[in-house]
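Narrative of activities, Objective 1.

The group set out to show that a structural description can be obtained from nothing but a protein's sequence at a throughput compatible with the screening campaign. Below is one input-output pair from the validation batch, recorded exactly as produced.
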Amino acid sequence: MSSGSLEVAQALTDAARAIHQPRSLEATLDAIIESARQTVPGFDHVGISVIHRDGRIETLAGTDQIVWELDTLQYDLGQGPCVDAIRESSIVAVEDAANDPRWPDYMPAAAQVGLRAQLGVRLFDEDETLGGLNLYSVNSDAIAEGAVELAALFASHATIALGRARQEEHLNDALVTRKVIGQAIGIVSERYKISEDQAFHFLVRASSTSNIKLRDVAQELVDTTNQQYEQDRDSRE
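Output recorded for this entry:
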């Protein structure tokens, strides 16, 4: 195995290890983009972005300020390799950026700040698009042989990290919802001297009648009760 192949294998191993270590999402993504920056030939800077449920795209990690600058420019304009990779094509490659006519608003501005080549790779699992891996070159107009395949490998690692983070977010949301509804049931049960089962159905009816989600009804009740408690406590002091 050549020294270059060994470096690639080690970088991918490091990226995989970063995902499975008990560290924050931010630290995991930083490890992935730094490994990609050092390993994918021809690119100087790397970033990872995520697409939210409302369609908004946000950069979560970047190896240099130019990543955030170029990412934000694409989001604001609604065009560019990053945007297209997420919304239309799974991989979008740009060589000789200054003369690429595909994004008439983005590319001239990007070239002006030094962009010479770019690669956007979609991050997606079986169910949905999660975001994109964005690679930028300020030193070469060409994309090196094998760079696209390597970038796709790092994108798969980033997808796993984002997927795990999203699962944890959903789990945390579910736990918070359960806690808030439980608190609201306790409040209603105590206030009206009814059973917890009756209190739960009371909240369900309130949600249905007002066309407001059960969690939001419960949260409003808990917040109002806490505010009243604070006011009563302050008045006694």
